[in-house]
């Protein structure tokens, strides 16, 4: 289905269609599904071949014994490997990210696992930016070392010389196989200068004789406000649970990049059973249709909320919103790499944990919950939840203190969100 080029139209004459337009029909032929305007949910575990020869060819392609036709990942075999619903959203997500193809997985951590297990081997070294999402920190720092995969890190993604020094030092431990960054980082919104990282990798390639694979978790900004593959990053990774899903009603992940780069990731997904089910894939195809307008509206509201926090009359707050971080290097990278701020950010109060909890308890519109990017606004205390598994000394080093509170701004009216915060601040601190 997704291989029908009549339904992969990206231009009208010389006019290139925007991703928002292609989300409505790209990769889907209604005439193959009784004329249904929207794709049905293909609830099947297996797919019939027209001939046994066709089945043999499909398996040869899936196993890598034979190349797939241009623009294809091969025929439909079994829903652990592929199915129409997942192929549709892989095609459409690639349009937003600006990548050649995508591989969708059953969760964001499933996507990260597929990347790491596809490319890392015992005695390799992975270098990470810091901080990362708590689950990513755990798999890199605690899980991978059990398989003799060594780890290293850098703390300032805006410092090119510091990144180079970190990668050179990591090379003394073994072969640096991968650099995994999160930009912006959760929950501090710190950035990694992707152009600088690429220059560093160029140097490492000349010195070591191989180029480490670059991976960026693009969940907080992308794919609307940042696309990292067109900026030279090998692999973009997403938790589709967040903005792409957008309604806090599904769990999924994705990997974007070139067809060659993603071939081992796709094989790992099939081997480990990490593919996404048809119904959740269908839900994501629904969500992709409104992704741009949801993220743009939430970003607009987020800026207004951040402005109120920065000037609130009750308690000084350090606002970690991209538009409000007062650092010239940060702003230069932000304006070069991103087209907007998205709507997840933190603010930091000089208060103990009990006061932070009291503030959260005094909110009524914001729901106290983990995750982000849904239609409803959420508030989270990362040091006691999402990053509680990270060692306390590392949390302190990353700035994830007891006074740091993360907000995910949803689709409520911003005036109401500000009124909720005003009431909570007044009840807590006045």
Automatic annotation (TrEMBL):
Which residues span the membrane? none
Signal peptide positions on this chain: none
Q: Which GO terms describe its cellular component?
A: cytoplasm
GO terms classed as biological process:
transsulfuration
Entry's InterPro entries? Cys/Met-Metab_PyrdxlP-dep_enz, Cys_met_metab_PP, PyrdxlP-dep_Trfase, PyrdxlP-dep_Trfase_major, PyrdxlP-dep_Trfase_small
- List the keywords (alphabetical): Lyase, Pyridoxal phosphate
PTM annotation (N6-(pyridoxal phosphate)lysine): residues = 242
Q: GO molecular function of the protein, one example?
A: methionine gamma-lyase activity
List the cofactors.
Answer: pyridoxal 5'-phosphate
EC number(s) stated in the UniProt entry for this protein: 4.4.1.11
CDD domains assigned? CGS_like
Give the enzyme's main class according to its UniProt record, as a single word: lyase
Superkingdom: Bacteria
Q: Which family does it belong to?
A: Belongs to the trans-sulfuration enzymes family.
Sorted alphabetically, which PANTHER family does this protein's record hold? METHIONINE GAMMA-LYASE, TRANS-SULFURATION ENZYME FAMILY MEMBER
UniProt protein name: Methionine-gamma-lyase
């Amino acid at each position: 289905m997704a291989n029908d080029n009549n339904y992969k139209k990206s231009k009208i004459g010389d006019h290139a269609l925007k991703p928002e337009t292609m989300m409505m029909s790209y990769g889907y032929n209604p005439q193959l599904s009784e004329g249904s305007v929207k794709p049905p949910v293909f609830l099947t575990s297996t797919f019939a071949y027209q001939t046994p020869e066709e089945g043999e060819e499909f398996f040869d392609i899936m196993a890598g014994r034979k190349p797939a036709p241009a623009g294809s990942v091969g025929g439909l075999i079994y829903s652990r490997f592929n199915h129409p619903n997942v192929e549709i959203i892989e095609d459409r997500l690639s349009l937003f990210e600006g990548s050649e193809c995508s591989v969708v997985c059953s969760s964001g951590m499933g996507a990260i696992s597929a990347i790491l297990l596809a490319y890392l081997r015992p005695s390799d070294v992975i270098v990470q930016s810091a901080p990362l999402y708590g689950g990513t920190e755990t798999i890199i720092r605690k899980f991978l070392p059990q398989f003799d995969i060594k780890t290293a890190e850098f703390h300032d993604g805006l410092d090119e010389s510091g990144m180079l020094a970190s990668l050179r030092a990591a090379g003394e431990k073994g072969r640096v196989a991968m650099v995994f960054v999160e930009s912006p980082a959760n929950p501090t919104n710190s950035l990694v200068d992707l152009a600088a990282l690429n220059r560093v990798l160029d140097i490492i390639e000349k010195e070591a004789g191989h180029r480490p694979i670059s991976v960026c978790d693009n969940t907080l900004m992308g794919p609307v406000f940042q696309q990292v593959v067109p900026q030279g990053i090998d692999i973009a990774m997403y938790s589709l649970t967040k903005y792409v899903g957008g309604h806090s009603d599904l769990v999924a992940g994705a990997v974007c990049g070139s067809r060659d780069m993603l071939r081992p990731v796709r094989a790992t997904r099939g081997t480990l059973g990490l593919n996404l089910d048809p119904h959740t894939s269908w839900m994501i195809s629904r969500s992709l249709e409104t992704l741009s307008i949801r993220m743009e509206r939430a970003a607009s509201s987020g800026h207004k909320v951040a402005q109120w926090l920065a000037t609130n009359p009750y308690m000084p707050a350090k606002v970690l919103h991209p538009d409000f971080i007062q650092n010239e290097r940060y702003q230069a990278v932000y304006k070069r790499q991103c087209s907007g701020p998205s709507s997840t950010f933190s603010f930091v109060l000089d208060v103990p944990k009990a006061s932070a909890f009291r503030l959260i308890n005094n909110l009524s519109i914001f729901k106290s919950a983990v995750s982000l990017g849904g239609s409803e606004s959420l508030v989270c205390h990362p040091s006691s939840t999402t990053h509680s598994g990270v060692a306390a000394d590392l949390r302190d080093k990353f700035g994830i203190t007891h006074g740091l509170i993360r907000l995910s701004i949803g689709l409520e009216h911003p005036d109401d969100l500000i009124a909720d915060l005003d009431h909570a601040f007044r009840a807590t601190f006045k």
